[in-house]
Amino acid sequence: MVTHAAVDCFQKVWGYRQGEFIRIYVRYSGGAEDAFAFGIMKDDPQNLAISYVDGGITFFMEEKDAWYLSDRNLTIDCRHDEIVFDRG
C-alpha cells in the first residue's frame, strides 16, 4: 500500500506523473540488524509480482524482490518530507 501522503510526495517532490511506473526493489544496505532495505526507481515491469496504483502511478515489485516481504505487508508513507517503508 502507498499512502496518499507518499503519492503526493512522489508527485510534488520527486516529480513523478500519472502513467509512470515506480519499482520498489531490495538492496543490500550493510550489516545492521537487517542487512537489506528497499530502494525506489522509475522502471518498466518485467516479471511483476505485486502492484498498487494510486494517483495514476503504478508502484510495483518484481518477482525477484518479493521474497523480502516474507508474508508481510508493505506500506510506503511520507513523514517529514521523506519516504519511509513500513514492513509490518
Structure commentary:
The protein is mainly beta and 88 residues long. The protein is 10% helix and 45% strand. Strands 2-1-4-3 form a 4-stranded mixed sheet, with no helix packed on it. It has a two-stranded antiparallel ribbon with strand order 5-6. A hairpin with a 2-residue loop joins strand 5 and strand 6.
Order of helices and strands: HEEEEEE
SS-based class: mainly beta
What order do the strands of the largest sheet run in, or round the barrel if closed? 2-1-4-3
Hey, roughly how much beta strand do the residues contain?
over 45%
How would you describe the shape? globular
Name the helicity range: 10-25%
Sheet with the most strands, sense and barrel status? 4 strands, mixed
Radius of gyration: 13 Å
Q: Number of DSSP strands?
A: 6
Output the number of helix runs: 1
Low-pLDDT windows of residues: none
Ends distance: 11 Å
Nearest-integer average pLDDT: 91
Any descriptors?
88 residues; mainly beta; 4-stranded mixed sheet; two-stranded antiparallel ribbon; 6 strands; globular
Write a compact overview of the structure shown.
By secondary structure, this protein is mainly beta.
Write the layout of secondary structure elements.
Blueprint: H1 4-12, E1 21-28, E2 36-42, E3 48-54, E4 57-62, E5 74-79, E6 82-87
Parallel strand pairs: 1-4
Antiparallel strand pairs: 1-2, 3-4, 5-6
